[in-house]
Amino acid sequence: MPLVLMCSSPVLPHVPSARTLFRVSASSNVGAGASDGFPPFLPRAVERINDVAAIHLAKRIERLPVHTGFSKGPILSSCVRPLKQQESNDPVVLLHGFDSSCLEWRYTYPLLEEAGLEAWAVDILGWGFSNLETRPPSDVLSKRQHLYQFWSSYIKRPMVLVGPSLGAAVAIDFAVSYPEAVSKLVFIGASVYAEGTRDLTSFPKFVPYAGVFLLKSLPLRLLATRLAFKKIPDALIFFDWVQIGHLHCRLPWWEDATVDFMLSGGYNVIREIKQVEHKCLVLWGEDDEIISNKQAYRLHKELPNAILRQVRHCGHLPHVEKPREVAMHVLDFVGREKKDKAE
Question: Could you confirm whether domain 50-342 is CATH 3.40.50.1820?
Answer without folding.
Answer: yes
